[in-house]
Design a protein that fits this description.
- Helix 3 (75-89) runs parallel beside helix 6 (188-220).
- This protein is of the alpha/beta class.
- A hairpin with a 5-residue loop joins strand 5 (153-160) and strand 6.
- It contains 6 helices and 7 strands, in the order H-E-H-E-H-E-H-E-H-E-E-E-H.
- It has 2 domains: 2-30; 38-211, Glutaredoxin, CATH 3.40.30.
Length: 226
Amino acid sequence: MKNENIKKFWVLVSLLIGPLIFYLLILTGKNDFRRLPILKNNIIDVKTLEPNQNVSFKDHITIVCFFGENLLLHKTNALNLNEKIYKHFNGFKKFQFVVVLPNGTEQKADELKKDLSFNTDIKNWHFIHTSKDKIDLLFKSFGTDLKLDKNSYMPQAFIIDKTASLRGRNQDKDFKNGMLYGYNAETVSEIHQKMIDDVKILLAEYRLALKKNKKKEVFKNPYKTK
């Protein structure tokens, strides 16, 4: 009978103390969460190209596209990204799309906006019109091995983080030297198989950082109220 009581005692202790120890290990343990690699720092901020358009990479998670002069020929790119990326992640704070276009494409851009706005709130789609020289300057700051065509078109969409750094993959077996700078929007497969996952990883990074900051505030002032 005595042995049975001792067993019950230790079972009770393990039930009470076990979860507490586990929680403390989570708080103090190292986090091995996978992060999306930074491929290039200090991308030129789109705001410096056309300050009056009031759009910036800073403090935003941005998907950048270059649809070129003949953007309506590449409407599928926009629709693919809208369906697979924008609609899925638009609920996150400071998430935006920026399409950089040559001057003179304003009317075509309006037509594309009408197509995108079907059953979609496109307030976080931003269309920036500027000179081809400025578009080239912006794109070169990405530091990729890719090139815009003569119409300032590029099939890839790019992920820029809140510090204006280019994110992507540096160990992707499907690409030369493992470098995946941008995601081909002409095909749904690459968006679905790679881009969605990478955007999720980046958003999770910021969620984790936010949680850590909140924990630090709690430990600094444990009596702080909301």
